[in-house]
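Example protein as discussed:

>
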Amino acid sequence: MKACIRGAALAMTAVSTAVALSACGSGTGSDSGGGNSPKIALLLPDATTARWETQDRPLLEKKIMKLCDRCTIEYANAKGDVAFQQEQMDSMITKGVDAIVLVAVDSRSLGTSVRKAAQAGIPVIAYDRLSQGPISGYVSFDGQEVGRLQGRALLKAMGDGGHTPQIVMMNGDPSDPNAVSFKKGALSVLTGRVKIGKAYDTLQWRPEIANTNMSGAIAALGAANIQGVYSANDGLAAGIISALKANKVAPLPPVTGQDAELAAVQRIVAGDQYMTVYKPFGPEASAGAAMAVAAARRTALDKVAKDQVRTSGGKTVPAVLLTPVSVTADNIKDTLVKDGFYTVQQICVPRLQAACSRSGLT
């Protein structure tokens, strides 16, 4: 796993270097996109998932400005509203931005907006989620591998009890193609090895919906008949664990997660959540920024993105696909802390001092 992280970082260094060289080689006044001051739009999907505002936005903005100090960034957050994000796309097209980095609220619904941008000559980089429409490039993690990591961890946590365990599946928003990939990857590991007592799709990845659904699953199946919970991300895990505790389920069954949110890492240390999936946001943001700057300067993206992905329209476009990492209490120090993602002080708040000591963090 450490090798994967180091490899991703090295790959992003190469990407950044390639873009920096292409930018330097373009010369004053020769940028076909945006003249001397390219404009790059950054459109994020919601403020519910902590990573967008606390990790991706600052990392993307910092990297874009490092690669292109004359660039300007037009930022907007859709707050989970599809129509609002469509309006934001229209606004960016009207402003004449030179490239758009898009995390689609609903990948299918934003397809029309992506087509409008393409017709206006504005390349769109799909970030983290593969939007429909004629995108120019894509950067994300291997979604099916995320699901496989979650599935494997859940099986390990439940152990071999001599019978087929029953689980609840709390999937993400079906309009998010990543959620579809996570589910597919998880099922490839879990099918035939568990009984799925209840399965839910969670609109807009909302924890309160996961909380309600989990309470319903407990009522329908009985707490004693739930040996594990597949949760597609950490936000849903928070809602799930809250429901389990409210229904006085003890001990808690293992619950998966994703995104390595600080609250989730603290739940893992406390023993409430079993695992999360760490997707090093630095390499992802570096790749997204590199592709955005290259697109804004009209540099060929295949010079900075060596992978490929097939879009909904059947076209193959340049992509950067990164490797996710499974995190449990046993390897927090060797992954999140070692990478500088969190400090021990951030994780080990006073109420967790004893648990941190048991986990080897302090």
